[in-house]
Amino acid sequence: MTSHPRQKMIETMARLLQSQGYRNTGLNQLLAESGAPKGSLYHYFPDGKEALAVAALEYSSRLVAERMTMLAASAATPRKALIAVVEAFIFDLEQSGFQKGCPVATVTLEEAAQSPAIQQACARAFGLWQGVLASYLQQQGIDHPERRAESLLMTLEGALILSRAQRDSAPLRRLVQSVALMLPQEV
């Protein structure tokens, strides 16, 4: 079953943004890799590349939130849940040859200061993920879930950037070891 051209463009843009960023993603490359007809970009996204990037960021943020929720729900303890989330990022990063880090961070660093629409999409993505983590921690009876979720997200994003820059998952693996310090004793 073939995806609708609009959805295929969103999925392709999401993949390209994650691996090469906004500025390095050209419209010709996007159209070629998505298989979308040339006129379809402005048909589905009248505001062009920026609007498509916003849609792709929203798509990526939902996928990550769903994955985080699924991983947390299948873990026996909050520590194991957080470790599973970090290990999922390690797996993706290593499998991609360190090309695919956070699907939002690169675009945030490149474009948030230039584009209010992209800045807002990035802020919503990080807010969604922080909310997923905070909600899970709250359900598990962990105190200060919002603050802990924010700390975990900040640490995870930093470890992803360091791992990608060093082409080595060691910073993420150290984060796995540090998760125990980020949570109180098991509840």
Layout of secondary structure:
Elements: H1 5-20, H2 27-34, H3 40-44, H4 49-73, H5 78-95, H6 105-111, H7 116-139, H8 145-166, H9 170-182
- Per DSSP E runs of 2 or more residues, the count of β-strands stands at 0
Quote the average pLDDT: 93
CATH topology of the domain at 57-181: Tetracycline Repressor, domain 2
Could you say which overall geometry the principal axes of the C-alpha atoms support? elongated
**Which CATH class of the domain at 57-181 applies here?**
Mainly Alpha
> What count of helical segments does DSSP give?
9
The span between the termini is: 45 Å
Assigned CATH superfamily of the domain at 57-181:
Tetracycline Repressor, domain 2
- Report the order of strands and helices: HHHHHHHHH
What composes the largest sheet? Answer: none
Q: Helicity level, as a percent range?
A: over 70%
Derived from helix and strand composition plus strand pairing, the structural class reads mainly alpha
The unreliable regions are none
CATH architecture of the domain at 57-181: Orthogonal Bundle
Q: What is the rounded Rg?
A: 17 Å
Strand content: under 5%
